[in-house]
Amino acid sequence: MSETQPSRIAILGAGQLALMLAEAAKTLLVEVSCAGQESDCASRVAKVITVDLEDASEVANFAKSSDVVTIETENIDISIVEGLPLAPNARAIGIAQDRLAEKLFLQSCGISCAPFRSVDSVQDLRSAVQELGFPAILKTRRMGYDGKGQKRIYSDGDLDGAFEDLGKVPCVLEGVVRFDAEVSLIAARSRTGEIVFYPLIENVHREGILRRSTVPFAGVTNAMQSQAEGYLKRTLEELEYVGVLAVEFFVVGGKLVANEMAPRVHNSGHWTIEGSKTSQFENHLRAILGMKLGSTDSVPTVMLNCIGKMPSAAETATTPAVWRHDYGKTARPGRKVGHLTLPGSQHEAIERWYLLLNPEE
Ligand code: AMP
């Protein structure tokens, strides 16, 4: 590494994404510190400094001994981080944290989105459903994740309640997309402009939470992979983006309709730790450090999220090839506490584990 190459990384946040970034940093022999609380899960492998992420002077103080600052969530106050050596940059994060700005941006890159309308009042909502019809989904523009901050709307009787339940904040109304599948594409762009893509990933969600990611997507064609790569290339270059970016799509009749983008490493890419030559975490670090990106050659792999409960090591040991990632978080209903990764050829074990982890199905 040359003297001018950045080597000290600060991560805003210390949850499971920071934990897996810090694990990858060890293999690259770079120094990572995370801003969070001592009890956060990244503290098992990295230095975690107690920082109030809503306090500009605390954040600036934390960041000052680092060459590059990165994020594990887009839900941060842009005014606080704007002057820092951020990767990805503040513009990309600002767009991705506002569903309306994100859709307008994606459309400006020539990427189709579900039909949507901006909603700031119940009156707006009434006119929006007249145009988009029922059913529709009302989503808060900001702070939505894992299905939080959204309400399905089936009839006129739902309008007032939905807007009120979401806190009467600025929203977007989206038409419900009748999709054949949900997929995501993860790409990394380095400081030098080099870009690499992983294969399209098929994702299964329930109650708005990702349950399972599969590579390769059974319905993928060369044309679809190329279309997705073209979309991400335009997005990355337009934003002068540095780091890993994920875009989630609906597949409708073989075409891709964008749902949302994440300016960070993404849950649907956790399988890359074992399933790809270079994980999304290592490629994110390589990108922000200005290093050459690693190969994304991948083998068929499935990732299952553990929601609300982590199976014990003794339980997972009953399956010959399963990698168990326990984030060390206190179990709570609906909370992601870990994930399992399995080679894609273990069909019977995958289905068995999927049902064990999702007994309601
Ligand atoms: P989001 O938080 O926007 O990613 O939404 C979480 C999940 O809800 C998605 O992965 C889909 O399964 C579902 N969903 C969100 N928006 C739509 C839509 N416009 N049409 C159909 N399903 C949707």
List keywords for this structure.
D-amino Acid Aminotransferase, Chain A, domain 1; alpha+beta; 361 residues; 3 domains; 27% strand; 12 helices; binds adenosine monophosphate; Rossmann fold; 29% helix; Dna Ligase, domain 1
Written description of the protein model:
The longest helix has 17 residues, at 222-238. Strand 1, helix 1 and strand 2 (31-36) form a beta-alpha-beta unit. The chain has three domains: 7-86, Rossmann fold, CATH 3.40.50.20; 115-175, Dna Ligase, domain 1 (2-Layer Sandwich); 181-357, 2-Layer Sandwich (D-amino Acid Aminotransferase, Chain A, domain 1). The mean pLDDT is 95. With 361 residues, the chain is α+β, with helices and mostly antiparallel strands. It is built from twelve helices and 17 strands. The termini are far apart. It binds adenosine monophosphate (AMP).
